[in-house]
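Handoff note, outgoing to incoming analyst
You'll be picking up this chain. Sequence as last confirmed:
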Amino acid sequence: MIVMKFGGSSLANGERIRCVVDLVKPELPRKPVLVVSAMGDTTDHLLEAADMALKTGTVSVERIAELHKNTIRELALDMSAITPLLAELQVLLVGISLVKELTGKTRDYLVSFGERLSARMVAAYGQSMGVKAQAVDAWDGGFVSDSRFTAAELIPESWATIPEKLMPLIKGGIVPVLTGFIAKDREGAITTLGRGGSDLSATMVAAACQAEEVQVWKDVDGILTADPRIVQDARPVEAVTYEEAAELAYFGAQVLHPRAMQPCMKTKTPVWVKNSYNPGAPGTRIVAEREKMGPVLGITSRTQVTLVDIVSTRMLGQPGFLTELFADFAQYGISVDMVATSEVSVSVTLDASYNLEPLKKDLSRIAEVEIKTGKAIVTLIGDVNRSSEILHQAFGVCAALGIPVQMVSSGASKVNISFIVNDTQRAEVVQGLHKHFFGVYAS
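Most recent structure output, in case you need it:
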């Protein structure tokens, strides 16, 4: 069997759903399981409807209903595929308008309608085209989560319940169309799996059912050598390892979330990232091991980064200083991205969204603290065995551009070399590095 996952842009309208079924039909001999996201911007529209019900008492499912009803008409399907769910959504929004409250539990119930509507429409159209498709809500497909609403995690028993629920359908010649992103906890409450949840749903099915591979269909030609919005001639990477894909994703390449790869890393199940708008493109294969290529595989970046420099002579030869230091970060729930240390100083990078004033006040007891905003992390993913060569060339590019590197992190990861520049310089640095490592004359 294989797993085919389709994101919201791949299901944006009737034409896209036709394309999805056209992609599925040649794969029928391989016993596919489909995992689907909500159509287009449906999740945002659901949250907007809830916000309106909460703040003004106005209940309207018109925007969501219009998209799905128009798609049903476009595909010449029966409205009965979605009518019960739209009625259920209406009742929920009325409840929100009366109670004037939107808890995490209710929010998860609300946004689940996007995937549930999508699965029913894809299954109905598949049936109309001769595919023995059946919509399956995630909880009926064995997905059991904890109760951390809006950011739930699948619990270990899902490894057994998923194949228990899905394999009989597959063996019966049915193509399950499974809702991604959602599950139920042990008490039967609907949960959502947080960032990368739909991709996680797909990789979990593949790993638990011992599938041959996962195909993640998106609106890009695979994992690219750089962000195409910054580098026009960025090109797809043929193959990456799970670790390389995770680092690329964490530092800005939003193709596949790192947590989504964890099940397949455990079972070494290959993942293909392919483009539903350009199915002839080879895409990118994510595997446990790959052939060595050039020194750099890809370049990515993150904006809105804050650099914190902490200097204290108390650090010199004093055991436990870093423990005390990072306990302060933990106290305020602040996650650190990069760290660099010397005998008397520590530099760290953080997301710019944190309020750092309370932390700075606490740290000032033991150190001098300087907070620098408006920074960017530029990351080179490649062969860290060649890190000296990569750093020499990368710093040469920055020097030629007249751009100083403000902090470097290398060695903590097997595949990642990162450095800090000003946010305003990010695009120029990424373009210069890409031209050097991937340009026509690059060796």
